[in-house]
Specification:
The structure is a homotrimer.
Chain A lengths: L11 E2 H8 L11 E2 L1 E2 L9 E4 L6 H4 L6 E4 L12 E4 L3 H12 L13 E2 L10 E2 L4 E2 L3 E3 L4 E2 L4 E2 L3 E3 L4 E2 L4 E2 L2 E3 L4 E2 L4 E2 L6 E2 L6 E2 L6 E3 L4 E2 L4 E2 L7 E3 L4 E2 L4 E2 L4 E2 L4 E2 L4 E2 L4 E2 L4 E2 L4 E2 L4 E2 L4 E2 L4 E2 L8 E4 L2 E3 H7 L2
Parallel strand pairs in A: 3-4, 4-5, 5-6, 8-11, 9-12, 10-13, 11-14, 12-15, 13-16, 14-17, 15-18, 16-21, 17-22, 18-23, 21-24, 22-25, 23-26, 24-27, 25-28, 26-29, 27-30, 28-31, 29-32, 30-33, 31-34, 32-35, 34-36
Antiparallel strand pairs in A: 1-2, 7-9, 19-20, 36-37
């Protein structure tokens, strides 16, 4: 869990945490302080964690967290050092606690800290167009260009030799060296993540970032959402064409090529040297191996092993697809 | 038919209307005044209406309109109070007459009335970014935010507690309370509606609006076109992800969830509590029931009854789809 | 090959060209000057050309070029007047030589020549919004409108009676008369063309333009990339809806209608009077005939003859598609 950009408002007293969940625990820990909310693996003894599915049973057994949001069924898996806090919906409660630690990560209103680049020290080091705005907590390396009307909102790190085009909105993003971002992109906004509740959905926090590695190119009109509890990552030398949508927590490997209008749903992982044809879609929470080729228009709804070529909806082996569709 | 934003230039004399159609009618009504053009049901005796398909036979029989654009075959269905005006192409003629009453509804050129928000009274009541423009006939409620470079063009009503992001263009739209619109959206432009004519198509008027109900969220890069003769509606607490296209006259119910890159073609109606997966498409003039789930990538080309889960292209029952595609 | 906008930095001495390719040729031509790089058909005796596939054998035999990048196998097809330059990868070498003649055609950084329209002579002849920027080498005809925040970058010709909306970025584009471009479009950027090379891809030059003929309409959020060695063309009176992506070198005929979210991959040719439904995709290098109808959501992966209706993925005869999917 990486959240370099969102201020942790902790620590909070255990009693405060408990009250916000509307549960009561007979416990002597009320005065204990909790410093952060983390996943089962990353937590230390000062943290609260969460455990909502038995598929995490093995890591749950070893968590170092002192407190864990979980269910009546799962709580028996936790070690002695960890006090189970049984709640009705683990993910909703996790969201609530995360919101307490990171209140700025929930809503993405426009950045009120953004000012004209002419009023910042970047005016001397960046090659920039008209009407460029820069928010707080931004750093920009050497030999960078930023085009007209682009808004670098708060919490952005840009490396050396980057070319950012016009009309972009970027926030909560780390861009490494020699990256090109063309025009009309929106990068680093929160993902499409919320708990559906009748009449008024509950948004959950997005404390992750977008990380774009060296030598990438991002086409026009592309959207890349930042991660919720992890980061959204575009690997080195990966090229994205126009009008692509990359959802929260997606991780794409190196040297991959993704054609226009592709969409990759939340939390899917794409390997290295992957080629994805235009308009293909990848469902959420999938694993696409290395050296995979996905034909244009495909709909991928299952994991794809390394070195495989697929096509179709749902995507299957490309030879099979072409044979079935002579 | 609702057209709060387009000025009705009527009434017009019956003789003027007849002349514009290039038909001749031997009739004593020449000096009569016509106040509006409406559908068969909404028309009053001062209005002209249109009747182009026998599927509207039953409502045609009861229309209160004094004049009706129709065909030689259909005219016998009209009541005695209604004079049939037989034309070659009912919809083209309807378009021509609507253009006479509502000339501003045809072309969507940039809004020349838009000025800097700093030069409006909203500078004191709205929390706004750099370079925000506001057109004529705009109202904005309490506690609203409008991001950088956003253009609120003419004919927009925004309720309370709304957050509009950056780089948006919005016109002819009513936004209710607590709505979030992220970045790079275009909302309220005319739809993709015209009569194909060799060398120079004929655009038809769009006198409808976009209505976005309470608690909605609209993702980045989304386009929502206003209605032609009715409105385009996004129901309460419905969330739209990034890069979605909602065409003219579409009506989406409450508490629905629509994932990235979905497209809904003109005049389709989507119920309440509907979930639509990424990149799915819905053809025009369909009816999608309540509590429907549509799998990602689906292509829906038929109506879907309530409480149904579908997937595929064309979309069918999801169990069938998964069985056929093991 | 048309490249009205990119300056040819030639002529170059044959020896300079040879050196850049890292090949050695025992030849007396070292002091010869080469004026341009062109395809096999367009080349004159002052030019260098390229020949990479035997399907161009017949035109290769007749080329007037004095030099030709090719392979050991293909070189025997060339006429006596043409010296074969055998290289490892013909297209990579072609790209390198093109980059030498046209260095400005490789990277699309923001246009540093763009200034406020208020500081140009267009302030007296164009009807324009706030914050409009105009680059060098732009011409605009009579009776044109340009909306707020739109950037007409360098190398743009706009005819008479055109309406350009807001938030657009346009470069390297010829727009004929009576064209409407709505909002948030990016037109004329280089295409998604490069040679994949581990760790750092090699972009190839795009010396073509975008040509939009009379009476076209381009919807919101649409991207149209300029051609690499030829032009990207939208024919007369063709209408594009919102969020369409047109890749490099695509040519679309007259009077065609393309619905929302369609994508057409590189170098495909679409005929006249073609109708394409929403979200359909067309693979690269295909030929779609005249009077073709492509159903919404289709994935076209083969050529389509004139007067055919297709649907499906892969697209097939629509009657067959509907019969197979009752």
């Amino acid at each position: 869990m990486s959240h370099p950009f969102f201020k942790n408002h902790g620590p909070f007293k255990f009693s405060e945490i408990i009250n916000s969940l509307n549960i009561s625990i007979d416990n002597s820990s009320n005065e204990n302080e909790i410093y952060d909310i983390k996943d089962l693996v990353s937590s230390t003894k000062n943290d609260i964690t969460f455990f909502h599915s038995k598929k995490y049973k093995d890591v749950a057994k070893k968590t170092k967290a002192s407190f864990c949001l979980t269910t009546d069924v799962l709580k028996t898996e936790l070690p002695d050092n960890c006090l189970a806090l049984v709640v009705k919906n683990v993910l909703v409660s996790t969201s609530k606690i995360t919101s307490i630690f990171y209140p700025e990560s929930i809503n993405d209103n426009f950045d009120e800290t953004a000012i004209s680049i002419n009023d910042t020290h970047f005016k001397d080091t960046v090659d920039f167009g008209k009407n460029v705005l820069i928010g707080s907590n931004v750093s920009i390396g050497n030999n960078c260009k930023i085009g007209h009307n682009t808004i670098i909102e708060k919490n952005v790190v840009i490396g050396d030799d980057c070319c950012i085009g016009s009309n972009n909105v970027i926030r909560n993003t780390v861009v490494k060296n020699n990256v090109k971002i063309l025009d009309n992109c929106t990068i680093g906004k929160h993902g499409f993540g919320f708990f559906p509740i009748k009449d008024k959905n509950l948004r959950y926090p997005h404390i992750g970032i977008v990380l774009i590695e060296d030598n990438c190119e991002i086409g026009c009109g592309t959207t890349i959402d930042r991660g919720s509890m992890s980061n959204t990552i575009i690997g080195k030398n990966t090229y994205l064409d126009n009008q692509i949508h990359i959802a929260h927590n997606v991780k794409i490997g190196e040297n991959s090529i993704i054609a226009g209008q592709v969409g990759i749903a939340g939390s899917s992982i794409v390997g290295n040297n992957v080629k994805i044809g235009g308009q293909a879609g990848i469902s959420g929470h999938l694993k696409i191996g290395n050296n995979v080729e996905i034909g244009g228009g495909s709909g991928v709804i299952r994991d794809i092993p390394d070195n495989t070529k697929v096509m179709g909806y749902p995507a299957k082996n490309i030879r099979e697809f072409l044979r079935d569709n002579k």
